[in-house]
Specification:
Layout: H1 9-21, H2 25-37, H3 43-49, H4 54-67, H5 86-99, H6 113-125
Helix pairs in contact: 1-2, 3-4
Length: about 140
């Protein structure tokens, strides 16, 4: 069974601080997992507590061995790729700023992204080739 290696007092204090105050929910969860594993709580028990797979907990421990505290953070590129290209995201941002000049105020409620995608796609449809992917709908590889 894989466990976290013995931790010194500074590491334990840092893990407690991460568990309480870190802005990333995943980093807080991983710090809590290490605090539990340090006294000997098993990986399957930690996985059940956090509703994660046992292999995920094992990967967290492996990343701790390789990278230390930096291993708690997700790497760029994790998750689903964006539906809009960078150029399309820029067009949506420009549209929002142009159509809603007061969008920087606190009380501004943005329209749904789907409506903005539709507007941008109508404006861009004339200059776009058919071979490019549409702005809406699922992204297929």
């Amino acid at each position: 069974m894989k466990y976290v290696p013995p931790l010194n007092d500074a590491e334990i204090q840092t893990l407690h601080e991460m568990h309480r105050y870190h802005p990333s929910k995943r980093a807080r969860m991983r710090a809590h997992s290490f605090l539990l594993s340090h006294p000997g709580v098993s990986m399957p028990h930690i996985a059940r507590m956090h509703q994660a797979d046992r292999r995920s907990v094992s990967c967290w421990i492996d990343r701790w061995h390789r990278r230390g505290f930096v291993g708690f953070y997700d790497q760029p590129g994790a998750g689903r790729p964006p539906r809009l290209s960078m150029d399309e995201q820029h067009k949506v941002q420009q549209y929002r700023l142009g159509a809603f000049p007061n969008s920087q105020s606190k009380n501004f409620i943005a329209p749904p992204l789907g409506a903005l995608q539709f507007s941008v796609s109508n404006a861009a449809a004339q200059g776009r080739e058919r071979s490019e992917r549409p702005l809406q709908g699922p992204v297929r590889p």
